[in-house]
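The following record pairs a protein chain with its ligand, dTDP-4-keto-6-deoxyglucose.
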Amino acid sequence: MMYELLNFKVRGDHTGNLVALEQGTDFPFDIKRVYYIWGTDRDAIRGRHAHRNLEQVIVCTSGSCDFILDDGHERVTVHLDNPAVGLHIKSNIWREFTNFSPDCVVMVLASEHYDESDYIRDYEQFKTEIAK
Ligand code: T46
């Protein structure tokens, strides 16, 4: 399976909505890092890499964008536009993301600290590594 969509529990009333993500109960891994991305041009293409070990849950907390995922055999596009849904991606999946709305904010919860050596930034290298 290339990805999984997590439907978070929403605590909402007439004043608004709240999602709480707690390690060990609502979440598939221990969270070591959180980062977020905003202010992207609609046509910008970010990502263009895979991770050797990292697992992530990606939430579009505002606006929308498209994630293109590739396991070396097929490519799928996942449209994110709901802050109550998390896109869970495990290791060894090539990802690109684009088609950002002007108000898009992407929050990422990651299973590891930042480590550049975990990135595979060349597509041919990615294909070679997953073929092993
Ligand atoms: C991913 C997608 C969804 C850091 O110093 N610490 C960090 O934790 C991160 C994530 C990045 N950086 C530095 C590395 C680069 O100099 O910030 C700069 C931009 O990173 P990058 O070009 O990798 O950003 P994206 O948006 O292409 O990819 C990021 C994550 O790196 C990646 O793991 O899956 O978001």
